[in-house]
Automatic annotation (TrEMBL):
The keyword Zinc-finger applies. The keyword Zinc-finger applies. Coiled coil: none annotated. Residues 116-130 have a biased composition (Basic and acidic residues). InterPro entries: ZC2HC1A/B-like (IPR026319), Znf_C2HC_C3H (IPR049899). This is C2HC/C3H-type domain-containing protein.
Length: 130
């Protein structure tokens, strides 16, 4: 039985997408409600893995931006949510670049205190020439 029966045709409106204030990914307005608690859980799990000095306070969801007509300004709200997620990134102790927690773990496989990844931008240390 390989016959795939498509469901009844539906008028498909493009689902409005919302940014997750924690991870910065986009979700449909329905799935964001499912995702956010899970994402927060994951955030806590990742946060607990960090050394105590690096742990942060739980992220707070920014308020929705209300437009002049009293409705939620989806675009402006998304910008606030996305910016919030960017502010949650963790600085790599070796190279100083900022990453999401899960990315940092991957990054630090190749970036170590002995051999930090090349710093992009200004070079704060005296150049060591051999
Ligand atoms: Zn998320
Ligand atoms: Zn690094």
């Amino acid at each position: 039985m390989n016959n795939f029966t498509p469901g009844p045709p539906r008028a498909r409106q493009p689902a409005p997408t919302v940014f997750c204030y924690i991870c910065g990914r986009q979700f449909g307005s329905k799935s964001i409600g499912i995702h956010e608690p899970q994402c927060l859980k994951k955030w806590h799990a990742e946060n607990e893995k960090l050394p105590k000095s690096k742990r942060r306070a739980e992220p707070v969801k920014p308020d929705a931006v209300i437009a002049h007509d009293g409705k939620v300004d989806v675009e402006a709200t998304n910008e606030v949510l996305w910016k919030n997620s960017q502010g949650l990134m963790v600085e790599c102790e070796h190279c100083g670049r900022k990453f999401k927690e899960d990315r940092l773990e991957v990054h630090q496989r190749s970036c170590t205190s002995d051999n930090p990844a090349k710093r992009v931008g200004r070079d704060r240390s005296k150049s060591q020439k051999r």
